[in-house]
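Data deposition worksheet. Section B asks for the primary sequence of the deposited chain exactly as it was used as input, without tags or linkers unless they were present during the calculation. Section C holds the resulting structure in token form. Section D is free text for depositor observations; keep each observation to a single sentence. Incomplete worksheets are returned to the depositor.
Section A, Depositor: J.P.
Section B:
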Amino acid sequence: MDQTLATPLSILSFNARLKDKMAYYNIHYPYHIAIHNGHATRAQIQEWVAICLYYQVSIPHKDATIIANCSDLAVRWQ
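Section C:
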């Protein structure tokens, strides 16, 4: 990525890049599709819930670790 904050994207370029990311949305995951189409087993639903819970717990820990390791105190206390 050669874009910087000094050279913002045009609206069309921004929208195109954003749409490119849609392939990574969880609505395209096999579990999500199976659950919403009524084809998932109980075990698959339980596994999906466990995965979601894992991410919900892990993300704040990851963010806290990044902030705690930041050498700029002003950034840490924002």
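Section D:
The CA atoms of residues 18 and 24 lie 11 Å apart.
Residues 42-68 form the longest helix (27 residues).
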